[in-house]
Specification:
36% helix; eight-stranded parallel β-barrel; homodimer; 721 residues; globular; disordered N terminus
């Protein structure tokens, strides 16, 4: 004891609390060889002569970053006086930059260049944007070079976003609950707005800008009309004012029935003149308060939400009405393609295509159709959505889910980069080979006038913003891919690790390895070989392959797994629902062919006998068991890898990750065991040699009960005995 | 512009973020004259020889505090080697302390001494506890001496708690909503328990221990039986393990109907043998997991909660059943006296007395009757509860509300010390003059075997814990008064300001002044002259003196204000409900007598004509208007005072307080104007000369609508047009 107490005399320095609040913008001091080089290469700052709030923020960020990394921010000069001078601004704000003729015009309104140039005998670095926000983006890029220990000589970087709309979707309710949120409550403290502006709002906008996100839908797609009342619009305007200089526009979800609920009208029929006038007046009211309001996001006629079909009108009728209301102000409407018909169809995967393809070309120019990456609902793996490639005359924007509703909530380490990349690189064959989803989304394939990518945010009041340190990477990779869908998500992971944790290669390399394999691990322990939608009912917490009954079949697991005594999988070929026919012929041909379809989509498209011989030579049953087990083993590997990295980063974050990996391994085993226990009651087959049986019997897993699982509003108030 | 940008070269040092997370335990560096003195007086630490988790925490805290304040923690020695040596421990853990014969036994299990002694020629300071937790309390006290710049010479301090149970009541639901919480969501992240122990749990226990709080009820009095299931008991046990070394015991609220809901029984009748057996088994199960579990808190037969009266049993029957279940393990039952009968009575203020006084002496020894400070419900001002002094054979513990349900939520600066003190110093006359509520509560008046004070917590996930920086003071003053109800709340305010903000007298004095007058200001702008329960329905946000109708009359404002054309106030004298008769005769006589009753309780006990001549010589109506206006003016004074203090503390906290005071002034004016607008429709009297009329007409105030006001679960989903 006494020796332990004697050690207490050594007090840990009261340093930065490594609680994750700083995200990837940590700017910790640079050590060693790089410090002198960076000090020399960032010796002074030459700001622009003309001011704007955005330029002030960019300059402040540059000083903050360099001050943190180099010990002190460089002095400011009115023109370059020495080597290493950093010249910052736009051609409009800086005569010096104007004189350099950087050919910025072709970079678009948000682009920037970072270039090493000679100026009156000095080696100078220019950080220049076409517009002010480009300067801010450029500053973040320049700082990233230091954060990731890149050389600052001979820089000739330029960048411009390939998508125009890079938007977070917050599924935040006005009561501060977050639908499918696992990171605390909503960061929007509506009660204290517009008077009190939590500093976190600024930090949020800064983080978004640092990865190029330029819009945010503040309210849940399952919308409340209250957000459109004057009381809340004033609150929204206060947030918009905070976000504006960071280049982040605010959007609202629009409840289609708002004219009834807050407008005193008797209908919300989109062709009714009074309804149209109400929305026009509402748009005018909003734009008076928020001149750069982005527009509306709408979930209509889906999962019980109101919509134009309530009045026998089409989605185009509904979207166009709202589009007409915001068009005079330059606003857009993002209309979600995620719809359910009221009546259960033969295959839920086919609905969006069936409803929207006939409407191609019928939408206003400022309507963007928002399409999830896959045809069901953000599953660990889905094939790409068949709408991509099928609507040449309607701009489609890609919706991905950053919050891990189906991928382990807060505590599972699952880096979503590979999932997003898999979709973006999928080939639709719409215009022959090489017609990637990315080419649809970036507008190059069909010449869309508007382009975009949106992500359902994983952000909440948790101190680390996202419920875990590694979940921050999913916010980060979303922003980076929305800026440029062709980026490598492995390289994005590497830069994120370096900025967030450490530049030590003995840390970076294994951690990037963990991240890159983490999504496949989750697929394996949850839904291998093309299975999907096998989670517990309502809460989506843990496995539930036995889930059946309830309000509609296409909300159950058995609907999707179709497991029976013969085999497992959903026949979506011509002998089944024929969902394959929604894809271009070469894709449809591959997916239809049991011999050609990749293993990882097998059961999505085929009902396959348990004894079917896989490419591996094993039976489907054995292969299934092995995949589940591989998933568990992969998490064990992550735990061992992480354990080997102890001491390489701060203990606060190390410990949290370590505990979360423990939880993940426990839950991965739960998924494996519960799934095998259930499917074995149908396959009646033994486990392959050497694979242990489930820890408990099926009844145990079926009767596990978890009340108060987060992510619901209201929570199911089940009682568990 | 350019000058502004040039200034950016100066980077603020990346110092401590003053976000309030550190509460009053900030340990910032001591400057100037005090530094040398303190270094000399805390030159080394002599820890005890024997270990315990609590002693390790105490020593760690001492090093942390001294390290922070003095630049480095003193070295550790095995015995005193120089002047300024700090000898720490208990007689059992430290032979040196045992030899000093500090007469610790009379201090009780939790007491401590801090004493300057001579030891082998050195001037030494001893921080000694009877038990380990006393050492921890002593360390916090010693550090406070430095934090508040007190001399460390000739110390002869000793302290022991005057109440045995000093307990926070969290009205936290298992879905993390907090009933009447205005500081974010519940800090208990049940989903990740027991696996993940958020470091905040440790910080919470530490903060509690620093003010002597030794228990916490983790769950809402409107209880869920789920908290008693094995799943949740394992989570509770994990928290208990974190809190244990800090001397903080965990308690649960018990839902009376749990035997039906999770026990599979057909009744919850407290005299049913199966029910009694179920609770005994449940208690055994809990104590197996948590050997020092504190016991149960019960809200029964109140506001719709189940209870023994559902089976025609008495509160004593119900409480005693639970008491018998926990008695073998040393547990207690806190039974709330806050009850409503199902039928509306003539006066809600009389119910608790009428129900409980007949039961005096019928409770088990380990039942504590938990009584709110006043007979209604935590109003800005109430007379003391008539049960105090009326139950000599039943230990009464005092319940106060730290969260500001009726006092402006997060944003109003209202220091509750004077409110608590007013109750504690009220004279019940139960045994003649000087029979203070404090003497009831500390057990001295009736020789209670158990004593306690509980506070409804104001704690949530907000970074500052309590929704505002000044709300921290209410957590602090609760702990200090529960330790010693005779303390001066002005002195407590002063020490809190010094620890939390600054020792600069030019800051401390005006801020203590603001705090001490803040509660009376709130009484004035909300419910002056003895009015009560005048807030908006359900949400309790803002004024609603016109509220009438609804499910029961005694939930309305008009029930309580009784305003009519003649006058205003609730006649509780013999001509009315005769609630005065529940007080001892000298108190009843004073309250009954219009000439003797203090102005500030006038309308609580009397219906008074608008033209009644007050002591001031003014009419009641004029006096009422003046009080409302005084409240608004007082908030304006606070704003001006605070504005004069700019620059004396960090800008982060300064700015938040400044904005919150703006909100408070706006809302104080709203209270004044809405109340006057309503009452004027009844009094038909002009405002006194020079007092401006309400800004809007009554209709405006009556139709204001605020959906999604925090503090509800579920929130009222009202739509406002």
């Amino acid at each position: 004891m006494c020796s332990a107490l004697l050690m207490l005399g050594v007090v840990a320095p009261m340093a930065f609390a490594e609680d994750g609040y700083d995200l990837w913008l940590r700017y910790r001091p640079v050590q060693g060889e790089w410090l002198d080089a960076y000090r020399a290469a960032a010796s002074e700052i030459v700001p622009p002569a003309a001011a704007s709030p955005t330029l002030e923020i960019a300059l402040s960020e540059l000083s903050r970053g360099l001050g943190g990394m180099l010990g002190a921010a460089p002095p400011v000069a009115s023109e370059p006086t020495k080597d290493g001078s950093l010249v910052v601004g736009t051609p409009r704000s800086s005569a010096l930059i104007a004189r350099l003729h950087l050919d910025l015009d072709r970079m678009g309104a948000e682009g920037y260049v970072i270039r090493s140039v000679a100026y009156e005998g000095h080696r100078v670095t220019v950080i220049a944007g076409t517009g002010d926000v480009g300067v801010l983006y450029g500053v973040f890029h320049f700082l990233k070079l230091l954060q990731t220990r890149q050389p600052l000589e001979h820089l000739a970087l330029s960048s411009a976003p390939r998508l125009s709309h890079r938007i977070l979707n917050h599924w935040d309710n006005l009561d501060r609950t977050v639908e499918r949120g696992y990171a605390g409550e909503s960061i929007w403290d509506w009660q204290k707005l517009p008077d009190y502006l939590d500093p976190r709002y600024t930090d949020y906008a800064r983080a978004c800008a640092s990865v190029g996100i330029n819009g945010t839908v503040l309210t849940n797609v399952n919308a409340s009309a209250v957000s459109l009342t004057p009381l809340y619009l004033r609150k929204l305007a206060a947030l918009a004012k905070v976000f504006r200089p960071y280049g982040v526009r605010v959007y609202l979800s629009a409840r289609f029935s708002a004219p009834l609920e807050i407008g005193g009208l008797k209908t919300a029929d989109p062709l009714d003149p009074a309804v149209r006038a109400w929305w026009r007046a509402k748009a005018d009211e909003i734009y008076t308060l928020i001149p750069d309001f982005g527009g509306f996001l709408v979930k209509a006629n889906s999962e019980g939400q109101p919509g134009p079909q309530d009045y026998s009108r089409s989605h185009a009728d509904g979207a166009n009405m709202l589009a007409d209301a915001v068009a005079p102000h330059g606003g857009i409407v993002m209309w979600r393609a995620f719809v359910y018909s009221q009546n259960e169809p033969d295959d839920r995967a086919k609905q969006a295509y069936n409803e929207f393809v006939p409407l191609d070309g019928k939408f206003r120019d400022n309507v963007l159709l928002q399409v999830k990456n896959g045809p069901i609902d953000f599953q660990p793996r889905e094939p790409f959505h068949p709408l991509f490639g099928a609507m040449p005359h309607t701009p489609l924007i890609l919706e991905v889910q950053i919050t891990k509703e189906y991928l382990g909530f807060a505590t599972h380490l699952v880096y979503l980069g590979p999932l997003f990349e898999e979709t973006l690189r999928a080939d639709t064959y719409a215009h022959g080979k090489g017609s990637l989803v990315a080419n649809v989304v970036d507008g190059s394939l069909f010449g869309y006038s508007q382009t975009g990518m949106v992500g359902v945010a994983n952000i909440g009041t948790d101190r680390d913003w996202t419920g875990s340190h590694f979940n921050q990477a999913n916010w980060y990779v979303f922003g980076r891919l929305a800026w440029d869908p062709s980026l490598s998500t492995r390289e994005i992971a590497a830069e994120w690790v370096r900025m967030t944790f450490s530049n030590d290669p003995s840390f970076v390399d294994p951690v990037v390895g963990m991240m890159m394999s983490s999504r496949e691990a989750a697929v394996d322990y949850m839904t291998p070989l093309g299975l999907a939608h096998q989670m517990a009912r309502t809460t989506h917490y843990g496995p539930g392959p036995w889930v059946s009954g309830g309000p509609r079949a296409d909300w159950t697991s058995v609907y999707f797994n179709r497991a029976d005594a013969q085999g497992i999988g959903f026949d979506r070929t011509a002998t089944g629902s024929n969902a394959v026919s929604q894809y271009a012929p070469p894709v449809a041909a591959e997916f239809s062919d049991l011999k050609r379809i990749p293993d990882d989509l097998l059961l999505w498209f085929h009902h396959v006998r348990w004894d079917y011989k896989m490419r591996s030579g094993r039976t489907l049953w054995d292969e299934l068991v092995i995949h589940y087990s591989d998933g568990v083993r992969a998490v064990g590997d992550m735990r061992r890898t992480w354990a080997s990295l102890a001491g390489k980063i701060d203990s606060e974050r190390y410990m949290q990750v370590s505990t979360f990996l423990e939880i993940q391994e426990k839950e991965a085993r739960w998924w494996r065991d519960a799934s095998i226990a259930y499917f074995q009651t149908l396959s009646h087959r033994p486990l392959p040699a050497g694979f242990p049986p489930p820890e408990h019997d099926l009844h145990y897993y079926e009767t596990l009960c978890f009340p108060y699982v987060p992510g619901h509003s209201p929570l199911p108030q089940e009682k568990c005995q």
